[in-house]
Amino acid sequence: MEKQKNAVGRRKEAVTRVFLSRGDGKIVINDKDYKQYFSLPYLQNQVVLPLKTVEVADKFDIKVNAAGGGIKGQAEAVKLGIARALLEVNPEFRPALKAAGLLHRDPRRVERKKPGRKKARRSFQFSKR
Fold first, then answer.
1. Which of 10, 6, 63 is nearest to 37 (CA)?
2. Which end of the chain is more exposed for a tag (fewer CB within 10 A), N or C?
């Protein structure tokens, strides 16, 4: 692999572009270290999960451009993007990534607000009298 591989990850409204290249395990998201960008430990674990699954955590440098959505959506979009980029590097990673459920794009979205209701499903308080 002489040049970097790239992939796109999406979740809810978040979209991330992941660039994977040979290196020593540095993960940079929007020009910040991933531990600084995602301050919560469980979000940091989401980001490195694909790398730990195929045991290549210290073999690749990862640069990510993340946009849209919230912090959790972005973390899960990064997870999908890294898994897809690893597949481009080595297709033999597929069974391990698939078994861990890392190649599945979560299709859940926010339900739209309905007319005559307070939120998507929540109605106004009912008054008998």
1. 63
2. C
Q: What is the pLDDT of residues 1-20, one digit of tens each?
A: 558 899 999 999 999 999 99
Which of 102, 106, 82 shows the shortest CA–CA distance to 12? 106
N- to C-terminal Cα separation, the chain: 73
- Compute the distance between CA of residue 45 and CA of residue 38 in angstroms, rounded to an integer: 10
Q: Give the count of beta carbons closer than 10 Å to the beta carbon of residue 111.
A: 9
**Cα-based distances in Å from 67 to 44, 46, 52, 74, 88:** 17, 17, 25, 7, 23
Q: Give the β-pairing of 5-11 and 14-22.
A: antiparallel
| Nearest residue to 64 (alpha-carbon basis) of 124, 129, 114, 4 | 4
Distance of alpha carbon 27 from alpha carbon 69, whole angstroms: 20
Alpha-carbon distance of 107 to 54, in angstroms, equals 24
Neighbours of 64 (CB within 10 A): 25
CA distance 45 to 64: 16
